[in-house]
């Protein structure tokens, strides 16, 4: 499994370049199934989740040519064959095969996907959305998901999603791109990764309007063609390094950032006393000098940081906010509204000396600043794992973080990037 040994107490400082967005890479990889032509994907992060998706694509006949470490040429083949249960269960992104396979093969069968164990990962919105396009979805007795088109081609429709699910929106978009007629998707998710998928499909000949909003109008095409598409930068990685610099008291220059994606993220970090300077269209500087004060609401009440679908504060950054808040002065409520089990990781921070009250599975009150000390901890999910890395960088002594697969599946070259920022980190078996 592997572990990190991190000796804390030194501010993380230096420069790094942010990688391509993991959550954009996954749907864009799945969308290559929608055409027989070759699709070139650029700025693909070199991470485990991508490698699993590529293995799954190869399993159903796609050719994946590695042009360089961040560029892939993908050409679909039969789209028949084996979607390995073990690989499907390794990533949440595997659910993204449902939409394209349904559109192009009129059916798809998949064991339930995996991903972070942070609470129920619902499938209902996927079923609701895809069945609105004239398909039938079921959970089979053997536990697999089976979906088939009721006619030879899916039919465009008005699709109202019961929640703004990211991957369900992506599945509906991909299915609708080859459906007959127009689809209008209401209550659609609008995260930058959803936008990337839409932009890629438009380059492939589809017509998607309303990109970035919660109403998408998709004109389905009989066939889509190849394209070359460059993935956007990973705003979760950006937020993680803002957190690392801020919590450890260092100064980091981040390159390859999409500053336009950071509006709410910046407001969230400001609430815990951290800010950054915009240094050109694709760079930000997190300066050493920070307020380091947990904000209070107008009227003096305890402040809070909470998540919501885009353009709200992303749920994936709340673990980072929580650990950073332990190093700031004051009290703050962190309210994770979307996943039922994500906040349980605070037990590890408490073990390291943090003063946190877990009020219920969704809410934690953080009182800071706390002196953290090294401990042996385990990464339960990709973002909690990164939060533990940040905690370790601030702690006195050595922290051993186990199960680092659950960190590295989402962060490219993490240990090298951390070494470059001066962190005393060693990777051990
Ligand atoms: C591969 C991928 O892209 N994974 C991301 C994707 O997962 P994923 O697409 O699985 O997440 P969903 O957007 O479906 O939902 C996430 C959770 O939020 C809840 N929910 C969602 C929408 C809503 O309006 N109300 C609500 O309560 C859902 O019930 C679920 O518990 O989006 C999540 C939410 O941004 C991110 O954490 C994941 O990193
Ligand atoms: C929850 C996440 O990933 P996944 O949906 O792939 O489990 C994440 O990226 O924080």
Automatic annotation (TrEMBL):
Binding residues annotated for phosphoenolpyruvate, in chain numbering: 22-23
The record's GO CC annotations read: cytoplasm
Residues at the active site: 116
Asked whether the keyword Cell wall biogenesis/degradation is assigned, the reply is yes
- From the UniProt record, give one GO term of the biological process aspect: regulation of cell shape
What is the main EC category here? transferase
Residues that, per the record, bind UDP-N-acetyl-alpha-D-glucosamine:
92, 316, 338
Described purpose of this protein according to its UniProt entry: Cell wall formation. Adds enolpyruvyl to UDP-N-acetylglucosamine.
Similarity comment text for this entry: Belongs to the EPSP synthase family. MurA subfamily.
**Name under which the protein is recorded:** UDP-N-acetylglucosamine 1-carboxyvinyltransferase
What organism is recorded for this protein? Sphaerochaeta pleomorpha (strain ATCC BAA-1885 / DSM 22778 / Grapes)
């Amino acid at each position: 499994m592997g572990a990190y040994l991190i000796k804390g107490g030194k501010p993380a400082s230096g420069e790094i370049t942010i990688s391509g967005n993991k959550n954009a890479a996954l749907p864009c990889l799945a969308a290559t199934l929608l055409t027989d032509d070759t699709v070139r994907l650029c700025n693909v992060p070199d991470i485990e989740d991508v490698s699993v998706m590529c293995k799954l694509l190869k399993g159903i006949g796609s050719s994946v040519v590695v042009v360089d470490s961040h560029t892939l040429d993908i050409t679909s083949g039969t789209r028949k064959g084996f979607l390995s249960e073990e690989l499907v269960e390794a990533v949440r992104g595997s659910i993204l095969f449902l939409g394209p396979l349904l559109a192009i093969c009129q059916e798809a069968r998949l064991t339930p996907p995996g991903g972070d164990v942070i609470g129920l990962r619902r499938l209902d919105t996927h079923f609701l959305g895809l069945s609105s396009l004239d398909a039938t979805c079921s959970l089979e007795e053997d536990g697999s998901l089976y979906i088939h088109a009721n006619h030879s081609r899916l039919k465009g429709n008005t699709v109202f999603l019961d929640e703004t699910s990211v991957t369900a929106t992506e599945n509906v978009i991909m299915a609708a791109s080859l459906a007959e007629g127009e689809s209008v998707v209401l209550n659609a998710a609008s995260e930058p990764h959803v936008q990337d998928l839409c932009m890629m499909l438009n380059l492939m000949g589809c017509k998607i309007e309303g990109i970035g909003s919660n109403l998408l109008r998709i004109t389905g095409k009989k066939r889509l063609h190849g394209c070359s598409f460059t993935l956007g930068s990973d705003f979760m990685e950006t937020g993680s390094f803002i957190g690392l610099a801020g919590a450890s008291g260092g100064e980091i220059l981040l390159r390859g950032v999409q500053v336009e994606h950071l509006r709410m993220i910046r407001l969230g970090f400001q609430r815990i006393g951290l800010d950054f300077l915009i240094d050109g269209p694709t760079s930000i500087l997190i300066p050493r000098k920070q307020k380091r004060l947990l904000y209070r609401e107008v009227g003096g009440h305890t402040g809070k940081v909470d998540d919501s679908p885009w353009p709200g504060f992303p749920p994936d950054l709340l673990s980072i906010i929580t650990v950073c808040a332990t190093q700031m002065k004051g009290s703050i409520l962190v309210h994770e509204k979307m996943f039922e089990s994500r906040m349980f990781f605070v037990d590890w921070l408490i073990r390291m000396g943090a003063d946190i009250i877990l009020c219920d599975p969704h809410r934690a009150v953080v009182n800071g600043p706390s002196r953290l000390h090294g401990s042996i901890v385990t990464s339960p999910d990709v973002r909690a794992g990164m939060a533990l890395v940040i905690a370790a960088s601030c702690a006195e002594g050595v922290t051993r973080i186990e199960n680092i697969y659950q960190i590295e599946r989402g962060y490219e070259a993490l240990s090298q990037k951390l070494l470059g920022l001066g962190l005393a980190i060693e990777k051990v078996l």
